[in-house]
Amino acid sequence: MTSTRIRACHTAIGATDGDPGSGRPLPSPPVSDAPDGGQLAEERWLGALAAELGVSPPSGEERELLLALAGIAAHASQRTAAPLACFLVGRSGLAPEAALELARRVSGQR
Question: In this structure, are 110 and 70 located in the same domain?
C-alpha cells in the first residue's frame, strides 16, 4: 500500500496526519516496498518488542507455525480471530506446534 493510499484510508476514518490532537500515529512508510519485502523491518520490530517484553523473538520455525495458526483462525472464524488466537497461545504457554495442532482440531481440520 502506498503512502498516498494509507493517507486516503486515514482521511476516510477521520485521522488527520500531523495533528497531535488526533490521537492517531502518522502512517509508517510501506515496508512491502523495501527490497526485502519488509522482512528486515519485521525482524527489527519483533526483536525490539521482544526485548521490551523480556523475551526472545520467535525463531523462523515459530513464526511459520504462528502464521499458520493465525491463518486457520482467520479462515475458520473472521480475520480478527488471528491476532487474538496468537494472544491466547502466548497466554497459555503452549508451544506453537502444539497450538497449531489444537487450532486445527478446534477448526475441524483434524
Answer: yes
